[in-house]
Amino acid sequence: MRKSIILLAALSLAAFAADVTGSWKASVETPNGSIDLTYVLKADGNTVTGTIQSPMGDTKIDEGKLDGDKISFSSTVENMGKMTYTGTVKDDVMTLKFAFPGAPAEMPEMPPIVAKRVK
Question: How far apart are CA 65 and CA 45, in angstroms?
Answer without folding.
Answer: 9
